[in-house]
Amino acid sequence: MSTTAATRRLRSPPPSIEQEEYELPADYKPYVPVAKRRAQLLKTLGTRGAKRIRTSEDEPSPEPTAASMLDADEQARELARRERTLLQAALDMRERKQVEEEGKSKAELAAVEDAKMLVEMERGQKKLAGAKDIAEGTVWTESLKTSWRAPAFIRAETEEERERLREKNHIIAEGVDIPPAITNFNDMKIPKPILKYLKDKGIKKPTPIQMLGLPTAFTGRDMIGIAFTGSGKTLTFSLPAIMLALEAEMRLPFVRGEGPVGLIICPSRELARQTYEGCLAICTALAEGGEYPQLRTLLAIGGINMGEQQEVMSKGVHMVVATPGRLMDMLEKGKLNADSCKYLCMDEADRMIDMGFEDDVRTIMSHFKHQRQTLLFSATMPRKIQDFAAQSLINPILVNVGRAGAANMDVVQEVEYVKQEAKMVYLLECLQKTAPPVIIFSDNKNEVDDIQEYLLLKGVEAVAIHGSKTQEEREYAIRSFKTGAKDIMVASGVASKGLDFNEIQHVIVYTMPKEIEDYVHEIGRTGRSGKTGIATTFINMNTPEQTLLDLKYLLLEAKQKIPEFLLSIEDPRLAIGGQIQGCPVCGGLGHGISNCPKVEELQRRQNNERQKYSGGGY
Ligand SMILES: Nc1ncnc2c1ncn2[C@@H]1O[C@H](COP(=O)(O)OP(=O)(O)OP(=O)(O)O)[C@@H](O)[C@H]1O
Q1: Which residue's CA is the closest to the ligand 1 atom numbered 10?
Q2: What's this model's pTM, rounded to 2 decimal places?
Q3: C-alpha angle with apex 52: 49 to 56, nearest 5 degrees?
Q4: What is the ipTM of this complex?
Q5: 573: enclosing H helix or E strand
Q6: Could you tell me which residues belong to the region Disordered (predicted)?
Q7: Which of 11, 143, 383, 499 has its CA 20 to 30 A from that of 420?
């Protein structure tokens, strides 16, 4: 040991040499245990490049004491733990950010893809107008003129008052110069015998779609009317046609070969017949009042003998209620003309377009010789069809009560998990929930037949209706169910759109349809005109997850109870930061266009068509 070297004292000398002084070499470095060294190293690493947060640890460290030296290992472990947490947090954050960024772009990409698909679908889609008008480039810019005016005291209302009234009744209206909503039939200038007829039927106060829809249609405006199932859309488009016909007849009575003034087109024969019967009843009541002439309505649907309606044809027709095919046929063959027709309404318009009736409708439109008023109605009109239709209308008003495609809030929706093999037996138990009448839906014709057969075997009075039944069978089923002769109707989707049966207590959706719009129409056979109804839906492993997600959102929207198994279904769009928007093609809330079942169906149909025309298939 060098004597010249600065002497140093061990602060904590080994116990054995406690009393003695040691001379320490000048380059002497005190011993630091491994754990402490590691801790110091970690501390340096942890603070490097990181934004420093002042903690008590930043205070100058006291000289290490024996105790602290003994705790060094523990401290090092703690520090390491803390460092790890910090590092982990930083890593987690970076990872999260990356996921978020990726997710965002994934969601954006998905939105771009959807928009592209929508454009692609719209490409080449011809305007919904008569071929002649398209060819000649005729564009009508003025709405049809009618003599109907709202009463002066209603016309005097301010725009704010009108808006408040619409808001109060949950009516959303779009368009220029929106007519005033009227909350009382008496103020709508409807002939007294019709008012009496409505009152006798329990129709005393207009529903929201009628409050604005009737004045809009009476003033000659084109319109798109969307309101939930069972909310009185039929009267909203039938009454204006009757009033227009009445005005024309009173000006100059119709004779053979003249008319119609109004045309109502429906996607199914059953629906056309029901609408026809409604018009017939109003016209009869009108004539029976004694002050007004008898208006004549013609039913033009496939499968019926038109000879039976010769009487109507021979006197001139005021209105025609039809399915597109039969109507087109009659116009083309000159059995009917639309020369003086001013009013065209498409009920369940979205369905009509989905079913491929677009071309028929264009052909029908090309028979119009004059400007017309066009109206489209449905409970489920997705944005794509609204936009498409709006292009063909003149200065239209969109009257919307609730979201297009939303379920009727008067329907209590119960969704039950029932294994495929247990469905039939459980059905019997389920039928005990309410008294008849009950409708059971399945989209599969064979299943409809099987269910009916099973119920008949069990002694339940059931009828069945689907697309492969003959016209007589279909009519018999509807008649016997409507009159109460049969308790249960087993039906495929054909009976779901627009049919209004008396006070259905319970709808059982035996097999959930792929398209949520169909489900909305099916459960909408109950809970009509303000009454409450129950819908029970069976789902199981065979129900596609996509459909279940649509269903989950629909239940949430309608504030219904969501069963556990539906709650657990996650929306993949949420994981990538996407937004929940209704699919513009079908209105379903659980998916976008890229996985829309309706798009798939449309593509399948197009492929079949292509194959047919290219001579493919056998
Ligand atoms: N203002 C009203 N008050 C009470 N009942 C009404 C009123 N208007 C119509 N109704 C009755 O409500 C029932 C359902 O009406 P409608 O068939 O027109 O519904 P909808 O909206 O066309 O339904 P869907 O979308 O299923 O076709 C009918 O029995 C009809 O007579």
Answers
A1: 232
A2: 0.77
A3: 140
A4: 0.99
A5: helix 572-575
A6: 1-22, 45-75
A7: 499
